């Protein structure tokens, strides 16, 4: 059986601009994004605020459906 050979791809280089000094410094913990840019927790909360709303909505709907199943079981059962 032939041995597998791993080939490492060379990353493509793209010109990058240095970060500007005029940006205000941000407080809070920093999480690094996949592109190397530091993102604050506050930025992530603002960007993904809809996720929490959707989770609440799904939880409420699941609770209503579960209670409906219990009520139907008691009523029909």
Brief overview:
The protein has 77 residues and is mainly alpha-helical. It is built from 2 helices and 2 strands; from the N terminus they run ββαα. Strands 1-2 form a two-stranded antiparallel ribbon.
SSE topology sketch:
Elements: E1 30-32, E2 38-40, H1 41-47, H2 49-76
Antiparallel strand pairs: 1-2
Query: What distance separates the N and C termini?
Result: 63 Å
Question: Whole-number average pLDDT?
Answer: 80
The string of secondary-structure elements, in order, is: EEHH
DSSP strand count = 2
Helix/strand class = mainly alpha
How would you describe what is shown here?
Helix content is 45%, strand content 8%. By secondary structure, the protein is mainly α. The chain has a two-stranded antiparallel ribbon with strand order 1-2. Strand 1 (30-32) and strand 2 form a beta hairpin. The longest helix is centred in the last third of the chain and has 28 residues, at 49-76. The chain is flat and about 65 Å long. The model has no long low-confidence stretch (mean pLDDT 80).
